[in-house]
Predict the 3D structure of the following.
Amino acid sequence: MPRALGLTRVAIVEDHLLFAESLEVALSLEGHDVHRVPLDDGMSSTALLTALLRAQARIVLLDLDLGEAGSGVRLIQPLVRSGAAVVVVTGDSDRARWGECLVYGARTVLDKASSLNTILATIRRVGEGRALMTREERDALVHHFQSEKRSDHETRLRLEALTPREQEVLGHLMLGHAVRDIARTFVVSEATVRTQVKSILSKLEVSSQLAAVGAANAVRWRPPQQQTWA
């Protein structure tokens, strides 16, 4: 017989059905009151948050990539404010994103590759009011997030320093358009466009068109007036 720990209400938010079902069974056998929140087709993050708040769970096991409901990160802070302990369980290995979860109030972040025993032990530690991470582990992850946030801010400032035409040219590069095609669109010489590209690379402090596109995509930047053409 499994050792009952007393009735603790645990909510599971997970878009992988088999993984969610495995967690539900394991936690139920441990003596927890488990509520799996289904991710219905077309469900918004607002509707999901409402369902979670209604569940009144003491602990929420939260995935980060929730399909149409978007990122689970945005749910952490309101859940914590409601009094829930949020444990993020994710397949995303981005340590900066893990740090972001901690900044918004998550108690810890676990890799989905973790064993069920690890997840169950974490739930037990939450119930016992024990720390889930060392200060060094937490600080390192938060540092990753803060460093990436600063880097993203600097990239956005560089993008804002581009002239309107340079922003348009970068927008076309992001669509995969070649210099010669951009020149035809603006009815200018290829040399003119190459000069603009060179200026873009200089302002963004990168060495290639690919790196410039990567930097813009990394901060989800789009030109103010993105032209579309065949």
